[in-house]
From TrEMBL:
SUPFAM superfamilies: Thioesterase/thiol ester dehydrase-isomerase (SSF54637)
Species whose genome carries this gene: Amycolatopsis vancoresmycina DSM 44592
Protein name (database record): Thioesterase
InterPro entries: DUF4442, HotDog_dom_sf
């Protein structure tokens, strides 16, 4: 199975000094809205992605905590990078829906972890793939949990 260009770039850069930061910057060039949370991809492999974002004034809400929608943006980054590392080049994926629970105030920088319990089979039929995401604060306490559903289909030839 060949890698997506995104996952190939990760493999090229991640092990080099500053490579993860360069990868994260390139990701934000490709998807400009992601840069609003200053994301940094920390780990990426099929079925798993970890992304961090610092607490800074650009993500504050009215009580100076990490805004709920900024946290959702971080969750979408983790899901999207997981999809790029997991879905083969013979298929495509599109976000279909997101369900989130805000379980605690986010008063620090955050870490989003998207992780599949097992890798799916990619066949001839389209299917919903539910990607669980947990966003935790700097102390490891979950502040947002959710599931992002993506629609996966074979590419049209």
């Amino acid at each position: 199975m060949s890698e997506t260009p995104t996952f190939a770039l990760w493999h090229k850069l991640a092990g080099k000094p500053g490579g993860k930061q360069l990868f994260s910057a390139a990701m934000c060039v490709r998807v400009p809205y992601f840069r609003t949370v200053l994301p940094s991809v920390r780990e990426l492999r099929p079925g798993h992605c970890e992304v961090t974002a610092p607490r800074w004034w650009g993500v504050y809400n009215h009580i100076r905590t990490f805004h709920a929608i900024a946290a959702c943006n971080l969750a979408e980054i983790a899901m999207g990078m997981l999809a790029e590392a997991t879905v083969p080049t013979t298929h495509r994926w599109l976000p279909k829906g997101m369900s989130v629970q805000y379980v605690a105030k986010a008063e620090t920088g955050l870490r989003a972890v998207a992780s599949l319990p097992e890798l799916p089979e990619f066949g001839a039929e389209g299917f919903d793939l539910e990607v669980p995401v947990t966003i935790s604060d700097a102390n490891g306490k979950p502040v947002v949990t959710g599931t992002i559903t993506i629609w996966v289909t074979p590419k049209k030839r």
